[in-house]
Amino acid sequence: MLGYLRPSVIGQAVRLKVSDIGYATRLFFKLLSMVSATFRRARLVGEQIHFLGNHSLAIIVVSGLFVGFVLGLQGYYILQRYGSSEALGLMVALSLVRELGPVVAALLFAGRAGTSLTAGIGLMKAGEQLSAMEMMAVDPIQRVLAPRFWAGVIAMPLLAAVFSAVGIIGGWVVGVVMIGVDPGAFWSQMQNGVEVWADVGNGLLKSVVFGLTVTFVALLQGFECQPTPEGVSRATTRTVVMASLAVLALDFVLTAMMFSI
Question: Would you say 221 and 118 are in contact if contact means Cβ atoms under 8 Å apart?
Fold first, then answer.
């Protein structure tokens, strides 16, 4: 009997997973289609940008500073072996602008803002606020999810830029102030080696994609969680895990595409 039931159980699980993927895809494109209607209520988007961006700024600045410290210290001892310590500024800037800035900022964004989004939407669902909106003919996706979605898309690149800028300052403090690298060589190598479109543009594109991904995962988990304290807790945990894995996987895909062009 178990042998006959197992294929049906597997098939049911596959159908449910495909259904979940289809629902998530429809929700994603629905949020994208609401861009004009969402920005007609700019106040709602602005409030969410303040909530997601300003409240995440402290951890972004502190983390960026210490990442810059580590890059400056490790980079100096690596470059010194080859007599290229004056290229420290270039190494720090490229590492942050291309990779560490968007990736680490996205991981921190998922841990701080993503969990807040999931918990907030989950608590609204548990308190039947979303159901009350539907009873009053108010679309909760347009009123609640869309402003948060586009606010996350806007806030994420700004936070990544702040992370990279603060990290460069941290690398300058360690390399120039503490170790004694020539400041002119530090900044000139950086200015001559970092390209706006190839380096800064690719990092900006990555941060936009990461913002889309992390914010959507957080909203989806909150919107579809079980309306119980345990359900909200599990959804918050899934947000951090799924968003972090998605960021790392997308970083590999985007980096491979950018360097192959």
Answer: yes
Output Rg (C-alpha) for the chain, integer angstroms. Answer: 22
Helix or strand (DSSP H, E) at 166 = helix 146-172
List alpha helices for 84-145, DSSP H: 88-94, 101-109, 115-126, 129-135, 140
207, 247 contact by CB (below 8 A): no
pLDDT 10s digits, 43-92: 989 999 999 989 899 999 999 999 999 999 999 999 888 888 888 999 99
87 in Cβ contact with 189 (< 8 Å): yes
59 backbone dihedrals φ, ψ, rounded to 5°: -70, -30
Please give the structure tokens belonging to residue 243: 């968003």
Q: Is residue 32 packed enough to be buried (19+ CB in 10 Å), middle (13-18) or exposed (0-12)?
A: middle
Distance of CA 150 to the CA centre of its chain: 13
Distance of CA 200 to the CA centre of its chain: 17
Domain regions of the chain by residue span: 43-260
pTM (predicted TM-score): 0.90
Q: Which residues contact 60 (CB under 8 A, 6 or more apart)?
A: 105, 108, 109, 159, 162, 163, 166
